[in-house]
Amino acid sequence: MQSTTPDAVKADAAQWFEHHWDPELPLGRWWQLLADAGLAFPSWPQGFGGRGLSASATKAVIQARRDAGAFGPPNGVATFLAAPTIMHYGTQAQQAKYLPQIVNGQDLWCQLFSEPGAGSDMAGLATRAIRDGDEWVVSGQKVWNSGAQWAKYGILIARTDPQQPKHRGITYFLIDMEQEGVDVRPLREMTGDAAFNEVFLNEARVAESDRLGDLGDGWRVAMTTLSHERDPDNVGLGETAAFGSVDLDVTVNDHRSALSSKIDGFSLALSGGITKVLDDVTRQFDALDDPITRQRMAKIIEMRRTSTWSGMRTAASAKSGGQPGPEVSTLKLLGSELGRQIRDVGLETMGPHGMLYGEDAPSGGLFHAYSMFTPAQSIAGGSDEVQRNIVGERVHGLPREPGEKEQRELPWSELPRS
Ligand SMILES: Cc1cc2nc3c(=O)[nH]c(=O)nc-3n(C[C@H](O)[C@H](O)[C@H](O)COP(=O)(O)OP(=O)(O)OC[C@H]3O[C@@H](n4cnc5c(N)ncnc54)[C@H](O)[C@@H]3O)c2cc1C
């Protein structure tokens, strides 16, 4: 496909989907076809499952795919966190080793950043990595690691030099989760699901060739990962986001119907699929004739449009070397608020039915599963308070928190820890 105007790109993509889309294909085969054609993640560089297309041309491809009713690319920590970070900082060998199996959905990944004593203050992390020949030996505890029980690899940050100030002694690694020394224990959430875990690392091994970025530069690499996490613009989320193991041998049709019948609050929040559920709920309860509900629905639609508006992202990314900048924190804040607005309109519309939980609740319980998940949206990827600090300090240039400057200069080993 040589054309580059969005209309021409869309026409070419539409032709491709007409020839190739077949819901009876095995899921893995379909994802491989998308990857080989560069239509899985069209904005990614050629050779990495993309075509290096602009934002508007990418949207045109996605529209062509949706018009064809074709299923989207794989999605999860692998595609929206690991892949962009590996593309930005990885060596050619790392990119060749990991990206093809991310783009075709074969390998699931998890993110090993947070620790019991280091969430918002992630730079205070205590997991240690000690060099041993051509390897690193990693010990410590991580927590809240989404999908770790299904992941083949993890993106990991660990302390490699405790004598350096806390932000400078951290290094970023790509760790094999399927090894002795990695113990994953699922945590049950108030939604009833167990999407995230605690992960105990007990002398786990990482090859030196799986260090991502420079020694001691892990904080900067992790900030790139987090800026992608806070950016809601993620190809494919609308159709394929779901936490769980994926069977690549089932047909796309079977995978798709399993997704729609067994969706959890986490996936609904990520996918934006909740808007449709809210729409169904307001219709079911005849609430659209109520002027106040209509007004609140209009607000939700506007907020969603704003959150996917690319102007903010483009400006931020231009300043940050093509990566989303600190300005994306405003979009993350908007996403949290949007979730709360949707929850409140839906539950209030249902009246007493809003108090139910389970499959016999309105919308088969989907709306309630989402409602229980909404508090998590203002915590995952950095809490709302932390996003406000980022916008204040890094976008508006306000002074940092009292005492932070001193803390940034002391060796990590001398910092007080609870
Ligand atoms: C659904 C979900 C999925 C997650 N998935 C992952 C994952 O895959 N991998 C991973 O590594 N982590 C994951 N996390 C963890 C997440 O990144 C942390 O929960 C988050 O960074 C907050 O850290 P904490 O829970 O330790 O809270 P704390 O840092 O202990 O914060 C407690 C409270 O204090 C406030 N606070 C803290 N510091 C400040 C400050 N400086 N100024 C103002 N207020 C402050 C916070 O806003 C919060 O309200 C996930 C979390 C959730 C909810």
Which secondary structure elements does this structure contain, and how are they paired or packed?
Elements: H1 6-20, H2 27-36, H3 55-68, H4 77-89, H5 92-103, E1 109-112, E2 128-132, E3 135-143, E4 153-159, E5 170-176, E6 182-187, E7 196-207, E8 211-212, H6 218-229, H7 237-240, H8 252-261, H9 265-271, H10 274-284, H11 291-307, H12 310-319, H13 328-350, H14 366-377, H15 384-395, H16 404-409
Parallel strand pairs: 1-4
Antiparallel strand pairs: 2-3, 3-7, 4-5, 5-8, 6-7
Helix pairs in contact: 1-3, 4-5, 4-6, 9-14, 10-13, 11-13, 13-14, 13-15
Bound molecules: flavin-adenine dinucleotide.
Summarize this entry quickly.
The protein is an alpha+beta fold.
Any overview of this molecule?
With about 425 residues, this protein is an alpha+beta fold. Among the domains are: about 80-85 and about 105-215, Beta Barrel (Butyryl-CoA Dehydrogenase, subunit A, domain 2); about 265-395, Butyryl-CoA Dehydrogenase, subunit A, domain 3 (Up-down Bundle), CATH 1.20.140.10. About 45% of the residues lie in helices and about 10% in strands. It contains 16 helices and 8 strands. Strands 1-4-5-8 form a 4-stranded mixed sheet. It has a 4-stranded antiparallel sheet with strand order 2-3-7-6, with no helix packed on it. Helix 1 packs parallel to helix 3 and helix 10 (about 275-285) packs parallel to helix 13. The chain is globular, with a radius of gyration of 22 Å. It starts with 5 loop residues before the first helix and ends in a 9-residue tail after the last helix.
